[in-house]
């Protein structure tokens, strides 16, 4: 008897203070709170969890990403238009590793020559649908190339016999050599070229006796040669539309005849090297002093402090790179693509020479290795203005999600409030609220938005337009939610717990919002998720019709609108595939989360 008593006491104490692992599973389910049961059911829904994880990843990327991928709304670059997804712009072919002796970076590509005189190209080499710089002419493949130059849309190379070859776009005379050069080429006479440079639709060649030859687009570019520099040129540096020359007396001269910021060359002496960007020129003298002139707009004139004397200068499109006496490399200027940020791998090694151009830098070490920094490519390609689509997707997603979320919050607040009052009180209150909702719901949304857009026009800023869209979407989309909440409350108000609450003297506002609404919370959550996706889709429609947020501010909607063109759809698939894919995935994930929440709140719904 005592044993049974002790056992009974032990069982009571065990149940009161003992290990919860001894509790039966049915008892454990009974003592769990409703919140824990909902969470448990949701966590065991694989589709819902997958949708939540993917949505959270997209949400975090679009909310945090703009801090790491800032957007310049004024950015345009005609050298980078409609580039497909690629990350190989600075990746030379593996079969030429250790053999490269010269590299010429181009706009979205690069060309290199090996110690065997063979030419290779890499990156995005297509100039037009029919012109591809990767199609190297047979005569170039058979020649022993010693010098190369990469231009905006063409490539020029020089072989060991003094023969010059040009391929790529030649509609503006890029491949038409001057008469003297043509005569020398036909007679196989070597003029002794020491430099070959290609720029924006023109090419310049320098001989060992100081002669300069130019050819290409001379209508747009000032590339004629003044008589007073002929026979005295040691080196040339090319800007977008003109060039400068380093003379044998250590001075610098403008090569053409026009007057512009580049032609206003400062008084310089003892110059050892020159370089140029798109709109500026630079010269370094024997003492290591660097002088910049022209029209600097990307910080080209902000020369950093250097630990040693610079001995060589190299220019890209909007940045400079300098090689110092101690082997250190310094870059400055535009850093949009990381071209002015020298990596630690370059800092820690001895650099023999550097090749720079447009947005790329290649550094050859004394050990024969190649270090690169700058534009590697675009993860999702670029659009017709040369803008990075991935950056615009990230920044546009924040706008689209913000518009959708705030609109849903406004819509839910009004819908729940009006639906709760109408469903609970009924009578004339119900009739008044329903007539108001029918009036609001009867307004043709898109025509109303178009009229509002015509009235407002451009009188408000982009940010104000975004706030206006949120308010309009929220105020005009609450009637369906109101009717849904009203119908549910009409059935819930007849339940026993409502009668009990009334008998206890609970205020009617508390009955509606603290007792009835929690019982239809699952329906509210599902409605909110569906409305969230709908509001994002509506923003896309408004952007298409001109009322939404207009470019250059990106949203997923206006990015798809910008790709609404048969040429874009057929030839530039990346401009609509990636925005549509992330938009579709985000919408599907939101719906999956809503369905999973509904099943978690009402497990029996999955059996029906």
If you had to describe this structure to a student in words, what would you say it looks like?
The protein is an alpha+beta fold and 608 residues long. It is 41% helix and 19% strand. It has 18 helices and 21 strands. It has helices at residues 2-17, 25-31, 34-43, 46-68, 138-142, 179-186, 344-347, 389-425, 427-442, 445-456, 462-476, 479-492, 496-503, 508-516, 521-545, 556-562, 566-571, 574-601, and strands at 100-105, 109-114, 119-123, 145-150, 154-159, 164-168, 193-198, 202-207, 212-216, 233-238, 243-247, 252-254, 271-276, 280-285, 290-294, 310-315, 319-324, 329-333, 351-357, 360-365, 370-374. It has a 3-stranded antiparallel beta sheet, with no helix packed on it. Strands 4-5-6 form a 3-stranded antiparallel beta sheet, with no helix packed on it. A hairpin with a 4-residue loop joins strand 11 and strand 12 (252-254). Helix 3 packs across helix 18 (574-601), helix 4 packs across helix 8 (389-425) and helix 16 runs antiparallel to helix 18. The chain is elongated and about 110 Å long. Mean pLDDT is 86; it is low at 12-18 and 20-29.
Summarize the helices and strands and which ones pair or pack.
Layout: H1 2-17, H2 25-31, H3 34-43, H4 46-68, E1 100-105, E2 109-114, E3 119-123, H5 138-142, E4 145-150, E5 154-159, E6 164-168, H6 179-186, E7 193-198, E8 202-207, E9 212-216, E10 233-238, E11 243-247, E12 252-254, E13 271-276, E14 280-285, E15 290-294, E16 310-315, E17 319-324, E18 329-333, H7 344-347, E19 351-357, E20 360-365, E21 370-374, H8 389-425, H9 427-442, H10 445-456, H11 462-476, H12 479-492, H13 496-503, H14 508-516, H15 521-545, H16 556-562, H17 566-571, H18 574-601
């Amino acid at each position: 008897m005592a044993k049974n008593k002790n056992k009974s006491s032990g069982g009571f104490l065990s149940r009161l203070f003992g290990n919860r692992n001894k509790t039966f599973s049915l008892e454990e389910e009974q003592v769990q709170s409703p919140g824990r049961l909902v969470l448990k059911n949701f966590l065991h829904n694989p589709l819902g969890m997958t949708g939540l994880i993917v949505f959270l990843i997209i949400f975090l990327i679009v909310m945090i990403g703009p801090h790491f991928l800032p957007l310049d709304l004024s950015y345009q670059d005609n050298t980078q238009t409609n580039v497909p997804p690629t990350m190989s712009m600075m990746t030379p072919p593996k079969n030429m590793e250790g053999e490269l002796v010269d590299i010429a970076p181009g706009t979205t590509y690069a060309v290199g020559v090996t110690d065997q005189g063979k030419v290779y190209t890499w990156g995005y080499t297509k100039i037009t649908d029919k012109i591809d710089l990767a199609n190297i002419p047979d005569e170039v493949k058979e020649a022993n190339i010693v010098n190369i130059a990469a231009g905006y849309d063409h490539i020029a190379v020089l072989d060991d016999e003094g023969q010059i070859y040009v391929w790529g776009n030649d509609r503006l005379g890029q491949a038409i050599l001057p008469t003297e050069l043509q005569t020398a080429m036909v007679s196989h006479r070597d003029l002794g070229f020491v430099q070959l440079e290609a720029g924006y639709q023109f090419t310049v060649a320098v001989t060992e006796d100081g002669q300069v030859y130019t050819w290409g687009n001379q209508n747009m570019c000032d590339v004629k040669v003044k008589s007073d520099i002929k026979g005295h040129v040691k080196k040339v540096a090319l800007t977008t539309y003109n060039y400068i020359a380093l003379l044998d007396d250590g001075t610098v001269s403008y090569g053409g005849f026009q007057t512009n910021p580049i032609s206003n060359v400062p008084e310089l002496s003892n110059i050892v090297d020159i370089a140029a960007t798109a709109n500026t020129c630079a010269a370094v003298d024997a003492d290591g002093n660097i002088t910049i002139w022209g029209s600097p707009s990307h910080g080209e004139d902000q020369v950093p402090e250097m630990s040693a004397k610079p001995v060589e200068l190299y220019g890209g499109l909007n940045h400079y790179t300098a090689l110092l006496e101690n082997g250190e490399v310094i870059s400055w200027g535009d850093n949009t693509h990381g071209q002015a940020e020298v990596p630690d791998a370059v800092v820690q090694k001895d650099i023999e020479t550097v090749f720079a151009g447009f947005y790329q830098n290649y550094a050859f070490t004394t050990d024969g290795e190649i270090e690169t920094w700058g534009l590697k490519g675009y993860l999702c390609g670029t659009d017709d203005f040369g803008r990075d689509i991935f950056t615009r997707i990230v920044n546009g997603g924040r706008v689209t999600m913000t518009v959708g979320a705030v609109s849903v919050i406004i819509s839910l607040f009004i819908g729940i409030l009006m639906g709760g009052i109408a469903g609970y009180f009924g009578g004339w209150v119900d009739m008044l609220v329903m007539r108001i909702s029918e009036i609001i719901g009867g307004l043709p949304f898109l025509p109303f938005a178009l009229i509002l857009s015509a009235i407002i026009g451009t009188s408000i800023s982009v940010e104000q337009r975004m706030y206006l869209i949120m308010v309009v979407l929220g105020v005009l989309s609450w009637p369906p939610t109101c009717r849904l909440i009203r119908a549910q409350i009409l059935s819930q108000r007849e339940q026993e717990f409502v009668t009990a609450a009334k008998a206890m003297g609970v205020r009617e506002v508390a009955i509606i919002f603290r007792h009835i609404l929690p019982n239809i919370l699952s329906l509210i959550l599902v409605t909110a998720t569906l409305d969230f996706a709908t509001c994002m889709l509506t923003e896309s429609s408004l952007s298409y019709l001109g009322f939404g947020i207009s470019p250059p501010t990106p949203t997923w909607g206006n990015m798809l609108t910008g790709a609404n063109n048969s040429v874009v759809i057929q030839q530039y698939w990346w401009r609509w595939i990636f925005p549509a894919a992330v938009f579709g995935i985000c919408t599907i994930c939101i719906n999956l989360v809503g369905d999973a929440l509904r099943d978690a709140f009402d497990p029996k719904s999955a059996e029906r």
